[in-house]
Specification:
Largest sheet: 5 strands, mixed
Strand order of the largest sheet: 2-1-3-4-5
Mean pLDDT: 93
Number of helices: 5
Oligomer: single chain
Order of helices and strands: HEEHHEHEEH
Helix content: 40-55%
Low-confidence stretches: 1-8
Distance between the termini: 47 Å
Length: 165
């Protein structure tokens, strides 16, 4: 399992898909959502895409990757996503990492690490825990600076606006 960068054949695709996820994250930020975007793909074909919707639909489970997994399952007509790669701008949390394992995702690619809630490398290692029935090869750090910057700016702006109230 790689911790940084992708296989040579995957690196261009990884960057393209992460750029798409970043575009979704920007859409989320414009809606007042925490800017995280996710894309589920089979090769170069996008199966589903989503961004955080917790505030919009008042659902604590509406994280970008969880929504993208649900939409992918519907689009493919199955819950097993064992031929899919999930691209997400932020390291998944415990809930999302569990969903990724249960969906049998073939590969996970994420941008920024999440030292406060990351469940793939930072705090926990759920996606490659040998005690679970499925392990997910993971590539971290794709466009990490861009992915981290959008989050930093969002929370900086949020703190500023709360001080002005």
């Amino acid at each position: 399992m790689s911790s940084r960068g992708g296989e040579d054949g995957d690196s261009d695709r990884d960057r393209r898909m992460m750029e798409r996820a970043l575009t979704l994250a920007r859409e989320a930020a414009a809606m007042g959502e925490v800017p995280v975007g996710a894309v589920v793909a089979i090769g170069d074909r996008v199966v589903s895409q989503a961004y955080n919707l917790r505030e919009t639909i008042h659902d604590p489970t509406a994280h970008a990757e969880r929504v993208a997994l649900t939409l992918a399952g519907r689009a493919l007509g199955r819950w097993r996503l064992d031929d899919c790669t999930l691209y997400v701008t932020l390291e998944p949390c415990v809930m999302c990492a569990g969903a990724i394992v249960h969906a049998r995702i073939a590969r996970l690619v994420y941008g920024a690490v999440d030292p406060k809630a990351g469940a793939c490398r930072s705090l926990y290692r759920l996606v490659d825990d040998r005690r679970l029935n499925h392990r997910v090869p993971t590539t971290a750090g794709i466009l990490a600076e861009d992915c981290g910057e959008i989050l930093s700016l969002f929370f900086h702006d949020r703190r500023l606006s709360s001080k002005l109230r």
